[in-house]
Amino acid sequence: MAPPAMASEPNASRAPLVLASASPRRRELLARIGITPDAIVPADIDESPLKGERPRPHAVRLAAGKARVAAALRPDAVILGGDTVVGVGARILPKAEDEATARRCLSLLSGRRHRVYSAIAVITPDGHLREALSETIVRFKSLSDEEVEAYIAGGEWRGKAGGYAIQGSAEGFCAWLSGSHSGVVGLPLYETRRLLRAAGVTLA
Description:
Layout: E1 17-19, H1 24-32, E2 39-40, H2 55-73, E3 78-88, E4 91-92, H3 99-109, E5 113-123, E6 129-140, H4 145-154, E7 174-178, H5 181-185, H6 189-198
Parallel strand pairs: 1-2, 1-3
Antiparallel strand pairs: 3-4, 3-5, 5-6, 6-7
């Protein structure tokens, strides 16, 4: 009689999962669905919009670009890249790195709707690219000068697309939202879970 087969070590043969982002927000969001990346490989790419580029394709292009950079460094891994873009019509709002930019963004968003495009890209070791995009409509209340200045003073806007972080006090500005809240934070969890499962990543 043949000896009984030995159980394989859990996850011993699976490809590691690499997050192509240093964003702590994305790691926190992945943890919500029980995922901890095996490694972080931040992808430094030029995020400047191309001439005439609209918000939706801009987000998709950057997510894929970041994933490709990380895949070149870790060809053995499943790579997850993402990017979030705030758009007002055809206009791409910048990531605010100074108070003046954040103030301009908040002034533009005050009392109106805008769209948040959160794109993800997953590349497997065989080079296959999977992509997904969430599109969320957000409407801000009309902001007073005092509210804008108080938000600026708090510093949550720094480095954030559109000059705000919805997971912080700016959620109090959000009068209405249709779509993915996690996508606005920085990683749409429904789409992420679906693509990682399709790429063979074991999920809870």
